[in-house]
Design goal:
Distance between the termini: 66 Å
Number of strands: 2
Shape: globular
Number of helices: 12
Helix content: over 70%
Oligomer: single chain
Strand order of the largest sheet: 1-2
Structural class: mainly alpha
Largest sheet: 2 strands, antiparallel
C-alpha cells in the first residue's frame, strides 16, 4: 500500500495525542480506575481502532483495512499474555494501586518506541533476505509448542519464569547507574534530596515493564509480519493494541487467572502464523537447496480473511471453554463436604 507522508504524520499525531490524553487525564491524577471507567476506556480504544480501519477502507481499500484489523486482533490477543507479566511486576514491586496507571502508561510508551525500531529493522531485513520468513516461522512454531508445554506445567514454574522479567539486565543497569530511594516518593520517578538525585522504585518498574514488553516483541513482531509487511499497517496495528493495553489491564487483571486455556489459544494462533510464514517463504523461495531455488507453491497461501477468522475463533473458543471450566470448578468447590 502506498502511504503518503501525511498519513504517517497523522498517525504519529494521533498516537501522541492519545498518550497525552491518557497522561493528563489519568497518570497526572493518580487513582485506581473503577471497572466501569476501565471498561469505558477499553471500548473507546476499540472503537478508535475500528474507525481507523474504516478510514483505511475508504482511502486504502479493503485489503489494507482487513490487514489492519487482522494485525490489530493478533497483537491484541498476544498482549493478553503480556498482562500476566505486568501483574507479576507490579505485585513484586508492591506498586500502590494509585500509581499503577502512570507506571503502565510510561512502560507502554517505551514499548511503542522499541517496537517501532523493531518494525523498521524487520522490514529492512525482509526486503533484503526473504528467507528470513523461514526463521520467523520456525521461531513462532517453537513458541507455540512452548506455550502448550508451559500450559501443561506447574503454575508455580510459570510464575517463576514471569518473575525473571522483574530483575532483568535493564533494571539492574539502572540500579547501578543511579542511587535508589528506599521506597516510593508519591508518584515521582526522580527525587532530589540533600543535593543528590535519586531514582525511585517507580522508575525501576517503568523500565521493567518496557523491557519486559521488548521480550514479547520478539514473537509478536514476526507474527504480525505473517499478516502484512506494510510498515504503516504493522505499526498502526501495534500502536492501537498497546495504547488500549493499560485500561485493559485494570479491566481484566482479576479475570486472567480464570483464562485457564489462554496459552492453548495463543499456541494455535502462533502455530498458524508460523505455518503461514514458512509457506510464504516457500512461495518466494530463493534457497538453492530447496527445490533448486525455485518457488514451492504446493499449498495455497491462506488469505487475510482466513487469518482473521483463525485469530477470532481461537480467542472466542478459549474464552468460552475457560468460562465453562471456571463455572464447573466453582460448582465443585461450593458443594458441601460429605
Amino acid at each position: 500500500m502506498e502511504v503518503h507522508a501525511l498519513a504517517w504524520a497523522g498517525l504519529i499525531v494521533v498516537v501522541i495525542g492519545l498518550i497525552t490524553v491518557d497522561f493528563v487525564g489519568h497518570a497526572r491524577n493518580p487513582h485506581p480506575p473503577s471497572i466501569r471507567e476501565a471498561a469505558t476506556w477499553t471500548v473507546g480504544y476499540m472503537a478508535l481502532a475500528a474507525l481507523f480501519g474504516l478510514g483505511l477502507l475508504v482511502f486504502g481499500g479493503g485489503e489494507a483495512a482487513l490487514s489492519f484489523y487482522s494485525g490489530w486482533a493478533l497483537e491484541w490477543s498476544l498482549s493478553l499474555d503480556n498482562l500476566f507479566v505486568f501483574i507479576i511486576i507490579l505485585t513484586t514491586f508492591r506498586v500502590p494501586r494509585d500509581f499503577q496507571q502512570k507506571a503502565l502508561l510510561l512502560g507502554i510508551v517505551i514499548a511503542l518506541v522499541m517496537r517501532f525500531l523493531f518494525i523498521l529493522a524487520g522490514i529492512a531485513i525482509i526486503n533484503r533476505f526473504s528467507a528470513v520468513f523461514y526463521l520467523f516461522g520456525a521461531f513462532l512454531i517453537y513458541t507455540a509448542i512452548k506455550q502448550v508445554i508451559e500450559a501443561r506445567g506447574d503454575e508455580d514454574d510459570a510464575a517463576e519464569e514471569a518473575e525473571e522479567f522483574v530483575d532483568n539486565r535493564m533494571t539492574r543497569l539502572v540500579r547501578r547507574l543511579m542511587p535508589t530511594t528506599d521506597g516510593f516518593v508519591g508518584n515521582k520517578l526522580i527525587h532530589r534530596h540533600a543535593g543528590r538525585t535519586f531514582i525511585t522504585p517507580l522508575l525501576i518498574v517503568v523500565v521493567a515493564l518496557g523491557s519486559a514488553d521488548v521480550m514479547f516483541a520478539l514473537d509478536s513482531i514476526p507474527a504480525i509480519f505473517g499478516i502484512t509487511q506494510d510498515p504503516f499497517l504493522v505499526f498502526s496495528a501495534t500502536a492501537f493494541s498497546l495504547l488500549g493495553l493499560r485500561q485493559l489491564f485494570f479491566l481484566i487483571d482479576g479475570l486472567l487467572d480464570r483464562m485457564a486455556y489462554l496459552s492453548y489459544g495463543l499456541a494455535v494462533i502462533l502455530g498458524f502464523i508460523g505455518f503461514k510464514l514458512i509457506n510464504h517463504a516457500l512461495h518466494e523461495n530463493e534457497l538453492g537447496f530447496i527445490n533448486g531455488g525455485r518457488p514451492v507453491e504446493a499449498i495455497p497461501e491462506p488469505s487475510t480473511v482466513v487469518s482473521l477468522a483463525v485469530i477470532v475463533v481461537s480467542l472466542l473458543t478459549v474464552a468460552l471453554v475457560s468460562v465453562v471450566q471456571a463455572r464447573r470448578q466453582s460448582r465443585v468447590e461450593s458443594r458441601p463436604a460429605e
